[in-house]
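worker-03 picked up job from queue 'complexes'. Input manifest follows; four sequence lines, order preserved.
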Amino acid sequence: MSREDQMIEEMFNHEGGLTERQKKILAAAIESFAEKGFSATSTKEIAQKAGVAEGTIFRHYKTKKELLMSIVTPMMIKLMAPVIIKDINKVLNHDHQTFEDFVRAMIDNRRKFLKSNMKIIKIFIQEIPFHPELKEQFIEHVGSKVFMRLRQIVVYYQEEGQIIKLPPDTVIRLTGSTLIGYFVTQYAILPNSEWDDEAEVDATVGFLMKGLATGK
Amino acid sequence: MSREDQMIEEMFNHEGGLTERQKKILAAAIESFAEKGFSATSTKEIAQKAGVAEGTIFRHYKTKKELLMSIVTPMMIKLMAPVIIKDINKVLNHDHQTFEDFVRAMIDNRRKFLKSNMKIIKIFIQEIPFHPELKEQFIEHVGSKVFMRLRQIVVYYQEEGQIIKLPPDTVIRLTGSTLIGYFVTQYAILPNSEWDDEAEVDATVGFLMKGLATGK
DNA sequence: AATAATAGTGAGTACTCACTCATTTTTATA
DNA sequence: TATAAAAATGAGTGAGTACTCACTATTATT
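worker-03 finished. Artifact:
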């Protein structure tokens, strides 16, 4: 395990050092922030939902905003970790022979992440416009590192002749748009409707592959 | 001009019957809601920015929320109007010979709409998660009508043999994801960066066309 | 068992919130 | 120009707001 891997492992387990009450506060805050938004949620409400005195919240988090950040920041670490550790290695080790293999693996991987972090991701997206630090943190963590790796991956498959030689950033944008659109439709727009997932995944991946096929 | 067209015209000009002070209040509210969010904006702040007494706001709008709705609702009418009136007719009149012509016209059309309604659209997107009525209104106006028309358009080009015969809703999703991704990248993610728009539009449209090409 | 350190409490603080209403200012009508 | 109607005002209202702090309960250390 590399030094970088260890760093990330530590960041993951950072949540381990939480008291029982702290966990309750976090759970209550996640619930309320996701539902009503940061601004419209009162600390009194969080305390009640957590079954804790209001003062207890401020013993652990200096401000309400610090509570928000302690929910959202670790999620960003989680967001980037698998991309820069596992998937990139699989590509470089030729575990994913085709770009399609890679995309399908990404879909699986990101779906799991989405499902187990729905509420926190919701909070993150909802609050990004109002807290510039969030965007900055995101660029710092995800933007620089993940993007760099994704560029490498794209260039790799381009040089293999599997996908069109557009600028890598453009390829990432087109692929990202398509996959995010797939997830948003399934989980945000039509969360309760009938949805033939196998067919939709096939259509989406098929569309992507044809759209990015080499011009030859 | 059909009865439906007239209805929409009326809805458009609904803004006409506004006093000078009302316009100032709306402008101030749009500014603050877009920047800080609905919940974090106080009526006092809006009044000050508009150069108006706080009571004046409540003479025209019973509640702060009614003020929000009076900003956001007309925008939804504007959003759907051009789609259901102009573009659909052009398609049915064979003004857009190819699906590519249609997509490019849509990009132009929606870009103009976006540019002249940036802040209100920002407010709408930011507040949707916290006000279920907004989502319901959106489905009622945009969802039902616009979607129906888009389905017709897709079926038309499918029967012409220009695009693949996936379920129309899937085609709309893939096209929508691609175009929304293009706009979001340009205006929300990289609003200050260098961006070769001609190249990006060509890449995006090219990707779409190849991705949706018939399998023949 | 005594002491120290940490965690938890909830009433209290100064302040802000959306909204009201009696009063004043502006506009329309005669 | 006098009178009625409409619009605008801003001090006032009670109900919150995030956050503090003197105090109590619990846990760890000697």
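worker-03 released lock.
Chain A touches chain B through 31 residues (CB under 8 Å).
The radius of gyration of chain A is 20 Å.
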